[in-house]
Amino acid sequence: MSAEFDITETLDVKGASCPMPVVKTKTAIDDLAEGDVLEVLATDPGSMSDIDGWAAGTEGVELVDQEEGDDVYKHYVRKTE
Amino acid sequence: MSTDTPDASADDAPSRAELAARVDELEDALAEATSDDGGKKMSIIATKGTLDMAYPPLILASTAAAFGYEVTVFHTFWGLEILHEERSKNLKLSSVGNPNMPVPNAVAALPGMDRVTTRMMEKKIADNDTATIEELIETSLDMGVEFQACQMTIDLMDYDEDDFYDGVTTGVGAATALQDMADADIQLLV
After folding, report:
1. Of A53, A59, B46, B96, which is the most exposed, with the fewest CB atoms less than 10 Å away?
2. HEC letters along chain A
3. In which domain, by residue range, is A72 found?
4. pLDDT digits (tens, 9 = 90+) for B74-87
């Protein structure tokens, strides 16, 4: 994996479906500090588009990377403020 | 003819101080009109209480809250069932009138069939790990969504304030909903 960022915390939402991956990502981000990166592990294929859209439309967060694995979709979200 | 016309109009002309005051006033009005008072808002009116129709308002409300929207959901008529702590756990689904369900209407109308269809749906929800209605309500409340129970419907259905989830707002009517809709960036009737 690219080492451009350090993962502060990992959120496992495997199994959960819409809207929970986004909702839980938001809740987890709230508990982090500025600059922290949250890793989100999901199995919901819709999470690729949903977390991307959520990050684009939400203040204070930035999607730094997404990876589509065999069964797991990985998302990396940085808290920017 | 008198030559004092220019003098008269000069008297009528606003002074420099008056003009400055007027400019200040207009600037204030402009600032108020264009100000973004805290952020985005969404207002949903939930009118349906079947298991399938309970999902869209709750999914959109919790997702909008995740986006930072200030969300109010006004529950009226059958939509009130969603906020009723006990009844929300037993919302039903019917195949009658829904040709997409795998049961023909003539069969679906038989006694007990709604229970069968509801169980089928509940099993699908559990198998898919889709959140339950209760989970979505609790999550939305945690995220600051304001659920409002229409007072007229509460009285109509003979419900009590204590019947609803903790945190549900009661004692509100159409005017409150209208006010929320007027202030909102997104308004939805479900």
Report:
1. A59
2. CCCCCCCCEEEEECCCCCCHHHHHHHHHHHCCCCCCEEEEEECCCCHHHHHHHHHHHCCCEEEEEEEECCCCEEEEEEECC
3. 9-79
4. 999 999 999 999 99
Chain B's closest residue to A56, CA to CA, is B67
Query: What's the total number of domains in chain A?
Result: 1
B-interface mutation test, from A13, A24, A26, most B Cβ less than 10 A away: A26
CATH for the B41-189 domain, from 3.40.50.720, 3.90.1170.10, 3.40.1260.10, 2.60.120.10? 3.40.1260.10
Distant-in-sequence, close-in-space partners of B21: CB < 8 Å, separation ≥ 6: none
Catalytic residue numbers of A read 18
User: Domain segments of chain B: what residues?
Assistant: 5-34, 41-189
Minimum CA–CA partner of B139 in chain A: A23
* pLDDT tens-digit readout, B119-134: 999 999 999 999 999 9
The ipTM estimated for the assembled molecules is 0.83
Phi, psi of B59 (to 5 degrees): -65, -45
How far A24 CA sits from the closest chain B CA (Å)?
8
